[in-house]
């Protein structure tokens, strides 16, 4: 327990808070596995969250809202992919500029819907709910986004390890010229990867405005999430399980911040709201330092540094961020 919060409630809260970030980070991981880095995430999350809420509000359909959010993310992915893959412009510059554009568009176009009540995705019970212990009932009674996030994790573990398409995607990310020599089309594979990853980013954005932080406004509550997702992919070593572990750690810090507000009412609430971001950054820096030390000393290193090196050793796709000109 943390304060007066039962352990089962704490776990349930962490699962619910981490689900959108898991979907976003895994979407970006798909993109980066192909060799393309998309720095527009932070703006795209806000833009897709706004689009999803507006569509769900106007249609009264959560399904339409989530689909619209995914398509909004895919549209931005199309822009990133076209300029980066086919026009060979800087992936960093394109992504950063698009992030700022999407953020401003989200606030401007979504202003009429600010603080307007709309549909919300509620937690649902599993078919075998009544047969579970009470503590598990609290943990597993979650919005559909939580189940989607962990189903996506299981799928991507299989996809990158065992499927032919996943192996082809990874080969393009490592060496697009060699993949082309084997008869693959690196540009097409990269574009499809960017579109698929961006669609998931849009779904994650929709999960904020339709489930985790229902509604639209400024601030929305998802500001900065895109940058955290980018950091999680890098420090998660482009491995699905490690990325998810990092997302759950960030969610845990957020939930702890909410719980600590009640324990220390004299401290401004803004301190606890922003604290997870620097804490997460310091944690990632510590991991990075530890893994660098492990690589430097090799087998001579032992203890904490050795295990951190095993868990968080970074292995970036060799062509990440590099423009490939297909002949």
Task: Give a verbal description of the structure.
With 327 residues, this protein is mostly helical. It has 14 helices and no strands.
Q: Please report which band the strand proportion falls in: under 5%, 5-15%, 15-25%, 25-35%, 35-45% or over 45%.
A: under 5%
Radius of gyration: 20 Å
Structural class: mainly alpha
Q: Low-confidence parts, pLDDT < 50 over ≥5 residues?
A: none
Summarize the biggest pleated sheet: none
The run of helices and strands is HHHHHHHHHHHHHH
Give the topology.
Elements: H1 7-33, H2 41-59, H3 62-86, H4 91-109, H5 134-140, H6 144-162, H7 164-174, H8 176-181, H9 186-212, H10 225-235, H11 240-263, H12 269-274, H13 276-297, H14 304-312
Helix pairs in contact: 1-5, 1-6, 1-9, 1-10, 1-11, 2-3, 2-4, 2-9, 2-10, 3-4, 3-9, 6-7, 7-9, 10-11, 10-13, 11-13, 13-14
Structure summary:
With 327 residues, the protein is an all-alpha fold. It contains 14 helices and no strands. α2 crosses α9 (186-212).
Relevant terms:
about 70% helix, about 325 residues, mainly alpha, 14 helices, globular
